[in-house]
Design a protein that fits this description.
This protein has 453 residues and is an alpha+beta fold. The protein contains 15 helices and 16 strands. It has a 4-stranded antiparallel sheet, with no helix packed on it. Strands 8-9-13 form a 3-stranded mixed sheet, with no helix packed on it. β15 and β16 form a beta hairpin. α11 crosses α12. It is elongated.
């Protein structure tokens, strides 16, 4: 979306094979640091026996005399899980691991120049993985072998991944508040209302937050920035069913990011049906109790595209989505043999011979009906042998309308005034056809001489 986003880069380089591994993160914290190690060891398909680091705060809490360092508890857990040794550079001596420093510059100039255009951090990491994998074909000047061949030889010295992946997460216990939310890094995440005021375990990863109750995951959210709210609509449906007024006043629903289709559906339902429209929209939202919200949203978007603003239309589209393509591609024809009044086939064209009655010398009143897009105009014309006696227009009967159709009514008032002015005039015989055409002109023209509408 042409939004510039700042990312953090994790870079690792093998001293023997010169193979480089790069990964991007949105945050520079302990969880990203741990996850990067898990990802690196999976890429290497093993664990190097020793790793060299700067004195970064994610690994070192204090640097003492004679090179003594106090390590963070999470980094000690990571080392104990994979059984590798660590070596730290002297303070402000990044040149002691100059190879990886050069790899960072190469990643910036080759992998990230020009600035990649992506839609997610996952897409950016796919780009970085392809770029670093392509570098494995480079030839080492000293050995005259490719980086990929050297890496394959180096893998024979790695420690095996025998204990599975390390869980790069931070957990703590807390009590769910009365708003059915938990707090993690100054951000709030919702849980189902039935767990309100109960103790739960909040487990934070670099990209998501999970909430567990008795070792079962009851909620999972994408991790957000401090001060934000991540509220799932499904978590508050039971209380919404008991208190429908919360749809407009409850914090979870006021913070809900309604899409343009959902806003239009509610506006049209309330315009057409009033309070009944609000109840229908509430019933549509409550469909999340039995179906995923993503499917309900897709059904709403389909109905809005077809301008089918009704609860039953949404339920029908949702049924098509749930039952799959078999129901959607069903092409059965309706059997109308028992309804002779309903034409089975139609070309959509009207026989113009019905307008010949306007030229006959008949005293019987003739009634013609013209159907417009959103109304039916009934025009009663009394004909005689030599003149048009009177023209009377009955007020249009509105059909199904929407909130957007009211903006198109102003131009019809001018045509109505024209009918009233022409109703009291008696034009000469030679101008009967033209005047009748002018009187009936409401978006269409009636020409008696050529018999076309």
């Amino acid at each position: 979306n042409t939004v510039t986003t700042k990312v953090m880069i994790f870079c690792a380089r093998s001293a023997y094979s010169k193979a480089t591994f790069v990964r991007a993160y949105l945050r520079d914290d302990m969880l990203s640091f741990l996850d990067a190690h898990v990802w690196l060891f999976n890429q290497l398909d093993g664990v190097p026996r020793k790793l060299a680091y700067d004195n970064l705060s994610s690994a070192v809490t204090k640097v003492g005399k004679r090179g003594q360092r106090e390590l963070t508890s999470k980094f000690r857990e990571l080392r104990s899980h994979y059984l590798f040794a660590s070596r730290f550079c002297n303070v402000a001596r990044g040149n002691e691991k100059g190879h990886v420093e050069n790899s960072v510059k190469r990643a910036e100039s080759n992998y990230l120049t020009p600035v990649p255009r992506v839609t997610s951090i996952e897409m950016l990491n796919e780009h970085l993985t392809r770029s670093s994998t392509g570098d494995l074909s480079r030839i080492c000047r000293q050995t005259k072998r490719s980086y990929g061949e050297l890496l394959q030889h180096e893998r024979s010295t790695f420690l095996p991944l025998t204990h599975g992946a390390f869980k790069a997460a931070r957990s703590h216990m807390q009590k769910v508040d009365r708003q059915s939310t938990v707090t993690c890094d100054s951000a709030r995440y919702s849980v189902p209302t039935k767990f309100a005021c109960l103790p739960v375990v909040v487990r934070a990863f670099h990209d998501r937050v999970e909430v567990l109750y008795k070792e079962h995951i009851i909620a999972s959210h994408r991790r957000i920035e401090a001060g934000g709210w991540s509220l799932e609509l499904e978590h508050y449906l039971p209380i919404l069913e008991r208190k429908p007024g919360l749809l407009d006043s409850g914090i979870p629903f006021k913070r809900q990011a309604w899409s343009a289709a959902e806003q239009l559906l509610r506006r049209e339902l309330e315009y057409r049906l009033g309070e009944e429209g609000t109840r229908q929209f509430l019933s549509i939202v409550l469909l999340c109790k039995s179906h995923p919200w993503s499917l309900v949203r897709e059904a709403i978007e389909r109905c809005v595209a077809l301008r089918a603003f009704h609860e039953q239309a949404v339920r029908l589209e949702l049924q098509v989505l749930v039952q799959g393509p078999a129901l959607a591609t069903c092409n059965r024809e309706l059997d109308l043999s028992g309804h002779p009044a309903l034409p089975v086939t139609s070309t959509g064209m009207r026989d113009l011979s019905i307008y010949d009655t306007l030229l006959t010398d008949s005293r019987e009143p003739q009634v013609t009906t013209t159907e417009a897009h959103d109304s039916i105009d009934l025009v009663h014309i009394v004909t005689s042998a030599d003149r048009v006696d009177s023209v009377t227009t009955i007020t249009p009967v509105p059909l199904a309308r929407s909130a957007q159709d009211d903006e198109e009514d102003s131009h019809q008032e001018t045509n109505s005034e024209l009918r009233q002015q022409c109703a009291g005039q008696s034009p000469p015989d030679a101008a009967i056809a033209d005047d009748v055409g002018a009187v009936l002109q409401d978006g269409t023209a009636l020409c008696l001489g050529e018999r076309e509408l």
